[in-house]
């Protein structure tokens, strides 16, 4: 079975183009180091829930859009090795303060699939 890293974050609407540029670079870096899939999605049908929702999870404001993304690897072991290479890749150097989103509100984690169809 594969292994998946998932991400959820809010991007200011005025910074979507900058985020897309960052995501395109990220896709190149992760794929160059062995990721088998890299997907970035902008919210299209994500209502603000009364108790919980994607926008609530990342404290999205009215001027932000939710981004849901994931990276697929062959295995957890591959993911761990790829992440070491990605984190050392000079293409990703830079201060997180320059990111086009608030990294403190990003939710992320690694997941072991139990169904793959």
TrEMBL record:
It holds the Pfam family DUF1428. InterPro entries: Dimeric_a/b-barrel, DUF1428. It comes from the Bacteria. Gene3D superfamilies: 3.30.70.100. This is Uncharacterized protein YbaA (DUF1428 family). It comes from Aminobacter ciceronei.
């Amino acid at each position: 079975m594969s292994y998946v890293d998932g991400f959820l974050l809010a991007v200011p609407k005025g910074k979507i183009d900058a985020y897309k540029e960052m995501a395109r670079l990220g896709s190149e870096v992760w794929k160059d180091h062995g990721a088998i899939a890299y997907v970035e999605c902008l919210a299209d049908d994500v209502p603000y829930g009364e108790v919980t929702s994607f926008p609530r999870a990342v404290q999205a404001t009215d001027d932000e859009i939710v981004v849901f993304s994931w990276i697929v690897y062959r295995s957890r072991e591959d993911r761990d090795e790829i992440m070491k290479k990605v984190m050392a890749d000079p293409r990703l150097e830079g201060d997180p303060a320059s990111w086009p989103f608030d990294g403190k509100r990003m939710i992320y984690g690694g997941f072991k699939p139990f169904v793959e169809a």
